[in-house]
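Human: My hope is that you can spare some time for a protein that puzzles me. I am handing you a single protein, as its sequence and its fold in token form. Could you go through the record with me and say what the backbone is doing? Take your time, and here it is.
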Amino acid sequence: MRYFMSLVLLLNALLCIAQTRTLDFFLQQATQNSPVLNDLQNQILISRIDSQLLRASLRTQVNFLSSNSVAPTLRGWGYDPAITNYANVSALVQANRNFVTATNLSAQLRTLDLQRRALLDTIQLSQRDLVRTLTDQYITAYGDQLAMAFTKDVFDLMKGEEEMLKKLAQANVFKQTDYLNFTVTLQQQELAYLQAQNQYAADYLTLNYLAGITDTTVQQLAKPDLQEVMEATLSNTVFLRRFATDSLRLANEKELINYQYKPRVGAYADGGYNSSLQETPYKNFGFSAGVSLTIPIYDGRQKQLKMAQVDIRERTRQTNKQFFLNQYAIQVSQLRRQLNALDLLVEKIDRQIRYSHTLIVANNKLLQTGDITMRDYVIAINNYLNAQNLATLNSVNRLRIVNEINYWNR
């Protein structure tokens, strides 16, 4: 008994010293510490560089080219000089450029822009998932805190009656067995209080873990201020925006495929030294220029096959979108039904708590005069416990449902 009381007092002291944390604090910490969000933000930065790389690749490219070889003949043995020219020495500066139409360039830039939009959608979904997961764990820990506080109140109430009941038992107002039954119930309540503290500490540290907080101090939690978000226009939510983005990406992919089968023009120019070292090598400085033209004629129907692949992905996108709309309607409807059912219980549970508490107060007065049995007093306490636990469970479940509704509607 002494050991348990010491541990209870120690844990209680730690909780009292620590400052109160709010849900916003944990959400801010989780957002800052999340490696997933950090990676996605870096991918956004990389995608911005990709558009710069694309523009740079379409500008004129200048390179220095040098090729030097010698193929000597010894006593008539060696490579055919008609092929090798005995030697080949070159040192050229070459400039080349592939010409792309403005519409083609716009399509390629649009590809990168849609990739960024898809990343932004993913970031918002990841943030939303993080908020839901962290809020749910916060609600769990907050429910533990409520249970811990209530078990402490009941324990303090029973502990305050212990000395008086002991004297009444010694005065033969109650049987010694009744007093022993009360003592057993008191010890059980003490164990329940200790277990509630352990559970709260475990769930609080899990909350720290999810938020990326390394502090192992168990602190108080403020009541989460969760306001139910009114049902938003579904078309404006990120859930449907990702389907719209995918649709635009598939349409743009078709446009890029079409551009692959249009004529392509390129040009080059070079200047420098290019010689076989056979005749007047000192005069072999010069330049050259040229134009290339590529006109696709036949590639084994690859274009049609690529288009078919895009069409299949578009049908998949439409199927997934419709499935999501159906699931969304069912999910939100069930959540609101559950929320309404819980709200109907609130008044009844509160009434039961008030009656149970009033009965305990009345029984306490009767207990002092021996006009009520110990068994009835313990039953009244247990009824109060059950009612309060039901209220805590109802409150926690309501917060969870509101959190889930906000996930879909925010």
User: Anything to note?
Assistant: The chain has two domains: 2-61+103-261+296-409, 62-95+264-295.
